[in-house]
Amino acid sequence: MKRFVIERNLPGAGELSAEEIQTISQSWSEAAKNLGKPHIWLLSFIGEDKIYCIHLAENEEMVREHARITKSPINTISEVKTIIDPTNSNPLTAA
């Protein structure tokens, strides 16, 4: 599966209540299970007016189908080609 970063504009996202976050989480988890193809919503980061989500899916179309089912906006989708993190700084462990 491929890894995707999804940016969702959602004014006031940083002010979502615990109950609203729980409802969104349940909806996204249930939709991922019911897509009929492998799809994993890994996690999301909530900013002031945006939510950034990380999904594993076969293709961008599956990510868009997940958003359609959950009625979640998508502003951008980017396929992750490479990950950079502190382990990349060590030439003995960098792949």
Q: What is the tally of beta strands?
A: 4
* Count of discrete structural domains: 1
Percentage of residues assigned to helices: 25-40%
Task: Count every helix, treating DSSP H or I runs of 4 or more residues as helices.
Answer: 2
The rough form would be described as globular
Task: Describe the protein.
With 95 residues, the protein is α+β, with helices and mostly antiparallel strands. The protein has a single domain (2-83), classed as Alpha-Beta Plaits (2-Layer Sandwich). Helix content is 29%, strand content 29%. It has a 4-stranded antiparallel beta sheet with strand order 2-3-1-4. β2 and β3 form a beta hairpin. 12% of the residues are buried. The mean pLDDT is 92.
Task: Give a topology summary.
Blueprint: E1 2-9, H1 18-34, E2 39-46, E3 50-57, H2 60-70, E4 76-79
Antiparallel strand pairs: 1-3, 1-4, 2-3
Helix pairs in contact: 1-2
List keywords for this structure.
95 residues, alpha+beta, Alpha-Beta Plaits, four-stranded antiparallel sheet, 2 helices, 4 strands, 29% strand, globular
Q: What's the quick description here?
A:
The protein is α+β, with helices and mostly antiparallel strands. The protein is built from two helices and four strands; from the N terminus they run βαββαβ.
